[in-house]
Every structure is written in C-alpha cells, then in structure tokens.
Design goal:
With 117 residues, the protein is mainly β. Helix content is 0%, strand content 53%. It contains no helices and 11 strands.
Length: 117
C-alpha cells in the first residue's frame, strides 16, 4: 500500500519559516510528479507547488518567491521550504503524488501549518 507521510508543520510567527517533508513509500518515486496542496477552513484545496520527475517546478502566485519545493529521489522525499510566512498561509498542507502513465494519484493525511502572532 502506498503511503505518504507529511511532517514539519506547526505554529510559526508571521515572517518565520518552516520546512515540510513528505516521505513516500512509492516503489518508483522518481517517476511521479510530487506536489504540495493546502486547504484552509472554508476554502477549496489548492495547489501550492509541484515538481516533476525532471525537477520542473510550479508555484501558486501567492507563494512565488517565498516557497521552494524540492525532491530527493534517493530518500523518496519531497520538501517544501516555506519562508516569509503570512497568516494567510495557515492551512492543512497535503502531500500528493501523481503519475499519468499509468494514472495514479495518492495523498498524505496532511500536516497543520498555523501562522499567527
């Protein structure tokens, strides 16, 4: 069974930083597009950042210049470095693994990030 486990969430003050990690049990991790999504109360889940197997990255406009996504294909882990955090970044952050040939889509359980003074 595929398992994605997020860690690194917590409470941080505005302007602070956090680094999220997602450890994946995927047998062919390097072939997956990895992403971080977040869902705030009363809002839809949104894509925050993604990184392809060839390390092409994509970011939501709201986090460009502040967040950095990276992956380690040896450790089967994807990271999200979050800098200059704002209260509006408060959400549950979910790790996602997606592949399209064949189609697969997996989710972690999420980790809470709260930005507050």
């Amino acid at each position: 069974q595929v398992q994605l486990v997020e860690s690194g969430g917590g409470l941080v003050q505005p302007g602070g930083s956090l680094r999220l990690s997602c450890a994946a049990s995927l047998s062919i991790f390097s072939t997956y597009r990895m992403g971080w999504y977040r869902q705030a109360p009363g809002k839809e889940r949104e894509l925050v950042a993604s990184i392809t197997s060839s390390r092409i990255t994509n970011y939501a406009d709201s986090v460009k210049g502040r967040f950095i996504i990276s992956r380690d294909d040896v450790k089967n882990t994807v990271y999200l470095q979050m800098n200059s955090l704002k209260p509006e970044d408060t959400a549950v952050y979910y790790c996602n693994a997606a592949r399209y040939g064949p189609v697969n889509n997996y989710w972690g359980q999420g980790t809470q990030v709260t930005v507050s003074s």
